[in-house]
Every structure is written in structure tokens, then in C-alpha cells.
Amino acid sequence: MSKPATKTVPGRRRVCREELLAAALEVFLRAGFQAARIEDIAQLAGVGKGSVYLHFRDKENLFQAVIDEGVGVRLDHAEALVDVFS
Predict the structure, then answer these.
(1) Cα 71 from Cα 24, distance rounded (Å)
(2) C-alpha span between 75 and 48 (Å, rounded)
(3) Are the CB atoms for 29 and 63 separated by under 8 Å?
């Protein structure tokens, strides 16, 4: 059985999780967590605010994903290097 075709609204583009994370990182670095707004992240990613909420429950969840994806990956890599040279 094949997947049903997804419909897109003319004038809107699909955004991937990685684009949202990149936009969120930029906004969080520039404005800080408290001042960062989902609207600003969505605008930077080139999507509507609702698109952010399709991927992330709230700003805290988005921030945690930015940390996990960015910092977490680097820490995993660093730990692997330490293991190799231990």
C-alpha cells in the first residue's frame, strides 16, 4: 500500500526540522532564550509560526532540540575521541 499524496498550499513551502533548528539557534544566540520568539524563528526559516509547532511542542522543546542536536552531537564525538585515545 502506498502513502497518500501530501497536499501543499500554493505559496507555502515545506520546511525541514534541520532548517528550523538552524533558525532557532541563530535567534537564541542573538536574542537569548527569554527574548527569542517563535515568530522570529519561523520568519527566519521562511515559514509560518504554525509550521514550527508541527515539529516542536513549544519554545522549550525547540530549545532542547537545538541543544541535543548541536551540543549533544559534539559531546558524543568528543567522548568517542577520548575513548580512542584512552
Answers:
(1) 14
(2) 32
(3) no
Q: What are the cell numbers at 32?
A: 537569548
63: cell is 530549545
Count CA atoms within 13 Å of residue 28 on its CB side.
Answer: 16
Q: Which residue has the cell 508541527?
A: 54
pLDDT tens-place string over residues 24-38: 999 999 999 999 999
pTM for this entry: 0.71
Cα 11 to Cα 23, 24, 38: the distances in Å are: 20, 23, 21
Task: Place 12 in a pLDDT band, splitting at 50, 70 and 90.
Answer: low
Report the distance separating Cα 49 and Cα 41, nearest Å. Answer: 8
Residue 34 and residue 63 in contact, taking contact as beta carbons nearer than 8 Å: no
